[in-house]
Specification:
This protein is an alpha+beta fold. Helices cover 50% and strands 16% of the residues. The protein has three helices and six strands, in the order H-H-E-E-E-E-E-E-H. Strand 4 (73-77) and strand 5 form a beta hairpin. The radius of gyration is 24 Å and the shape is extended.
């Protein structure tokens, strides 16, 4: 008897919760480093994730073995300059490289 009441209660709660208006999910930061120790812990966690599976930063495909290329993100925050080199699959590395070379060539021709 007790189990059936708990199940009925859970089902009733679920039905009531589904009737509520949908709330849009806004992306929230998972963690924000507040000091050097926290920053080191976050980097260690990122390194563990990266060791598990490499994915192309452009198309999100799984990369088997070593990446064919790497992108480059550079940004400044205050006096600190940060740099990130995400992995790229062969197709994306080639496409990004050719596009950059073409853009550079056009700039040189225009003077």
């Amino acid at each position: 008897m007790e189990v059936s009441r708990v199940i009925e209660s859970a089902v009733g709660t679920t039905v009531r919760n589904t009737a509520k208006p949908a709330v849009t999910n806004t992306p929230r930061p998972i963690a924000i480093a507040i000091d050097a120790v926290a920053e080191a812990a976050l980097r260690a966690r990122e390194t563990e994730k990266a060791a598990e599976e490499l994915r192309c930063d452009a198309c999100n495909e799984v990369i088997e073995g070593e990446p064919s290329g790497r992108g480059l993100y550079v940004w400044a925050r205050g006096d600190e300059v940060r740099r990130e080199e995400p992995p790229l699959c062969g197709c994306c590395a080639t496409a990004i490289g050719i596009t950059a070379l073409q853009a550079w060539s056009i700039e040189e021709e225009e003077g």
